[in-house]
Amino acid sequence: MGNIIILDIGSQFVKAVIPEEKEVKEPLDENKEEAIERAIKKIQGKSNKAEAIFIGAGGEDLKGKTTTFCCKREEAGKEIDLTELKYLIQKVEWKALEEIRDEDFRLLDAFLVGVRIDNHLASNPIGVRGKNICLTAYNVYSSVGWLAGIEKIISKFNLQLAGLITNSYALFQRLDPEKLQKGSALIINIGGNITEVTLIKNSGEVMATKTFHLGEQIFSRTLAEFLGLKLNEAESIKTKYGNGKLSCEVKRKLEKLFFPAVSLWLNGITIVLEDFLEQYQSLPSKVFLCGEGSKLPIIRSALKKEKGIKIENKNYFNENNCSALIDFCAKRQKEGDLLLPVFKRVIKLIQSQ
């Protein structure tokens, strides 16, 4: 996997890494494409082996959602074969297209999340018999303009596009089903300027992401304004706070200063959770926290005190999304996917319509 660049496009930084080599981080400025180019150029300078690039993003760049297609089989006693599965993939992808139909968006990639046959999960439906079948796929899409910009950049560096995935799906793939209660969880990913909340139900049969434009940078800006510091100086103090390297007295003063900011951030969480609750009737009890902001103790304490949310497995996720993207890409390359070419052919057919 050493010849592939993993690119994480966040809300504050663009991070590029070649597995087993040092990460490059570029701050996002007004021209996001230039920041991406700088990151790729720097990481290529560390290795001449890179031939392809795998991209993870979220927020307003890459979007994703699950779609389920169900039908009754005419011959319940007949074993499901690859031909029938291909037919179902076509059906679920056309349904996905109808759900996200927008002339400004383009369907890019899809992954099989699960298959239910007569309401029983089937890890491999080939050879299974049954009357009712439901297939769930996770679909990745983006605006035409964003995709055109990415394609222009990677062609400039003579790189092949190895894949695109939302950060939320890469994080979902890291979850151990045994750690989930009935296959359901919430992932709160706190980036620099955006917080993403992903709802997972029934082991991924339902997966939806909502965002709001507040992240851990609100705490840096609060500190910088109060003390008259440059933003990078405030970042340094905030990092020490997150790593537990400040005295108890300084920590208490900082948390008092951060209180209005964390209250504002909690308002965003409240709105998102209320939207999820209205749409899906219930919320999972398992909640995982990740992203740069997950290091801040005040975030965890506020979620528990104000929302009754206890965060699971403090170190389950690395705060850096790049590690999840590396794992996802490696797993995809190692295990392969019999249905991946089928999804790609169907998506290509859809795109040509």
Concise overview:
The protein has 353 residues and is of the alpha+beta class. Helix content is 41%, strand content 25%.
Characterise the protein shown here:
This protein has helices at residues 32-46, 82-99, 144-156, 167-172, 217-227, 231-242, 248-280, 297-307, 321-335, 340-351; strands at residues 4-9, 13-17, 24-27, 52-57, 62-72, 105-117, 120-121, 132-143, 160-166, 185-190, 195-201, 206-212, 287-290. The protein is an alpha+beta fold. It has 3 domains: 4-59 and 146-171, Nucleotidyltransferase, domain 5, CATH 3.30.420; 63-141 and 341-351, Dna Ligase, domain 1, CATH 3.30.1490; 176-316, Nucleotidyltransferase, domain 5. The strands form 3 sheets. The chain has a 5-stranded mixed beta sheet, sandwiched between helices. It has a 4-stranded antiparallel beta sheet with strand order 5-8-6-7. Strands 12-11-10-13 form a 4-stranded mixed beta sheet. It starts with a strand and ends with a helix.
Q: Which features would summarize this protein structure in a list?
A:
four-stranded antiparallel beta sheet, 3 domains, Nucleotidyltransferase, domain 5, 353 residues, alpha+beta, single chain, 13 strands, five-stranded mixed beta sheet, Dna Ligase, domain 1
